[in-house]
Amino acid sequence: MLIKVLGSAAGGGFPQINCNCRNCADLRRGRPGLSARTQSSLAVTRDGENWVLLNASPDLRQQVAATPELGPPASAGARASPIKAVVLTNGDVDHIAGLLSLREGFALSVYAAERVLQTLAANNVFDVLDVRLVERVALTIGRPMELTGGGAGLGLRLEAFPVPGKVALYLEDPGAGPGFGTREGDTIGLKVADAATGAAFFYIPGCAAVDAALAERLRGASLVLFDGTLYSDGEMIAQGLSSKTGSRMGHISMSGPEGSLAAFAGLGVKRRIFVHLNNSNPVLRADSSERAQVENAGWEVAFDGMEIRP
Ligand code: MLT
Ligand code: MN
Ligand code: ZN
Hints:
Elements: E1 2-7, H1 22-29, E2 41-45, E3 51-54, H2 60-65, E4 83-87, H3 93-96, E5 108-112, H4 114-122, E6 134-138, E7 145-149, E8 152-162, E9 188-194, E10 200-204, H5 212-218, E11 223-227, H6 235-238, H7 260-264, E12 271-275, H8 289-296, E13 299-301, E14 307-308
Parallel strand pairs: 3-4, 4-5, 5-6, 10-11, 11-12, 12-13
Antiparallel strand pairs: 1-2, 1-14, 2-3, 7-8, 8-9, 9-10
The structure holds D-malate, manganese (II) ion (MN) and zinc ion (ZN).
């Protein structure tokens, strides 16, 4: 199995279109130790020929152009794509908008939780994905399934599980109390396993907290790619970028007693990689003390084009 990180940034990317935060400004200036990042997505293959995308970002076209393996195979006919399936972990714009770039008329399967499929069905623009070619498959919590796409098996087994999170920003119901109408399954984590060898990894790009159930699920895992949106809960407020904390946005922070560094400290996860990094996050600076701190805690910071062999 091979994982390629197509996009390691959170929604907005790095640099973000309208952002003059220190990181974005320094990146535009070409300051060393900062590299551009596209929005949140992975590509996974078992056989090197057939690929599944985990989330479809607004930068998908650029990501495919930067990844020769995802272009049409030279031996194929006039039109072909090795992208056979897409799995969505929530309905956020940074995870679904890339579906629109997959409208060019080839067969694939889109897997998502029922409520995310309802969101796609409620937005007619997604009907550009021809129903005769693009099947939509509901992920059932607690029932692992073999991934297929374009009529073939991908040799990968997928398990979806709910994680603490928040409904997509554009679906928030301000009258629905503190959860804004969030229901279980609006944010899921994925376990992807090689069906032949059993080698597996977890992918959890959005997560509000590591509760007891999630901690037990991840204990002893060999590889986890995890929500690295913010270093500290209030960093967007402190930098004058937003009035929202990380917890208000449904994202755990790296630091602090409730943060991911602390939560993973006793879990025995062998390899831990932060994905979905917001442009405000100081770990994006290779020479920052925050980067040193997460690396000292045993974490890696994903970058676009990163290859991982679970
Ligand atoms: C998030 O991860 O919180 C969302 O991608 C935010 C957004 O929709 O921009
Ligand atoms: Mn996001
Ligand atoms: Zn910024």
